Amino acid sequence: MIRQARPEDTDAILDVWLLASLQAHDFVPAAYWWRQQEQMRARYLPSAEVWVCEREGEIQGFIALVGDYLAALFVRPDCQQNGIGKALMTTAKRLRRRLSLRVFSENDVAVHFYRQHGFAVTDESVDPCTGQPELCMGYQGH
């Protein structure tokens, strides 16, 4: 079930974010992700519209939207390949006519996923926090 996040979901959302970030971004030192947890809790999540995928009472993935910006789409590593990302993306597209996002260029799985869902590269840049190259991608609904 996909539903809007509640305050009591925060710890579970952070767990999903950290586990998925460590797995998907092995080209960024793990310490970076551990250090970002408090920023996620205190600043990023409260400023976003967050939706979660809950199955059997457990949060398995989430999206975070800030306006038309898809700030996050993460699925717990042991729950991937079960349609959760697709369901979350469908929710994001239902909520917004257009979407933009940034994704690390080296995150091939995510880049492929976004392309499959109609996103196209609009620009390239370097993430100022990690120094990693990233793609800016956009989606325009019908």
Would you summarize the structure shown here?
By secondary structure, this protein is α+β, with helices and mostly antiparallel strands. The chain contains 4 helices and 7 strands, in the order E-H-H-E-E-E-H-E-H-E-E. Residues 1-142 form the N-acetyltransferase domain.
Structure explained in plain terms:
GO terms for molecular function: acyltransferase activity, transferring groups other than amino-acyl groups. It is a single chain. The chain is of the alpha+beta class. 36% of the residues lie in helices and 34% in strands. Helix 1 runs antiparallel to helix 2. The chain is globular, with a radius of gyration of 14 Å. The model has no long low-confidence stretch (mean pLDDT 95).
Could you state the order of secondary-structure elements as H and E? EHHEEEHEHEE
CATH fold field value: Aminopeptidase
Beta-strand percent range: 25-35%
Mean pLDDT: 95
Helix fraction, binned, reads 25-40%
Q: Can you name the CATH architecture?
A: 3-Layer(aba) Sandwich
What is the overall shape? globular
Radius of gyration: 14 Å
Keywords: Acyltransferase, Transferase
Protein name: N-acetyltransferase
Organism: Zobellella taiwanensis
GO molecular function: acyltransferase activity, transferring groups other than amino-acyl groups
